[in-house]
Design goal:
The protein is mainly beta. The chain is 10% helix and 34% strand.
Length: 126
């Protein structure tokens, strides 16, 4: 799930991990025309207009991955979040993983996330 507070929704999302100078891209996705402040898709089987560029990712259990949203003109990006397969496996049904400014994992409901993205005391858009 990606959430943003600026006026520009992402055009896509990328999963990568450390390696080399720029990181190693695992998968990149083109987004459909997005509205609102959040979106979600399955990385292994995107639907709802999301399109995988290339082959599905083959994520490995001992690697820390990052995912972020981007715009084609690089004018805006959604802050990245880190995860491991073991972290993803612990996400409870109906919850989403997010990280606070200290990169601590938190699980919240989509409703809570929606409220948080509209609360300027919690989210800094600037």
């Amino acid at each position: 799930m990606l959430a943003w507070c600026g006026p520009t929704p992402p055009d896509g999302a990328t999963i990568y991990h450390d390696g080399g100078t720029d990181g190693i891209e695992e998968a990149s996705y083109d987004a459909p025309r997005l509205t609102g402040r959040s979106t979600s898709f399955r990385v292994d089987d995107p639907a709802g207009g999301w399109k995988l560029q290339g082959k599905p990712p083959r994520l490995q259990k001992n690697i820390t991955y990052s995912v972020y949203g981007w715009t084609r003109d690089n004018g805006y990006s959604v802050a990245s979040a880190e995860f491991r397969l073991s972290t993803a496996a612990r996400i409870k049904p109906g919850k989403v993983l997010l990280q606070d400014e200290n990169e601590h994992d938190m699980q919240v409901t989509r409703r809570q996330l929606h409220r948080m993205t509209h609360d300027r005391t919690w989210v800094s858009c600037g």
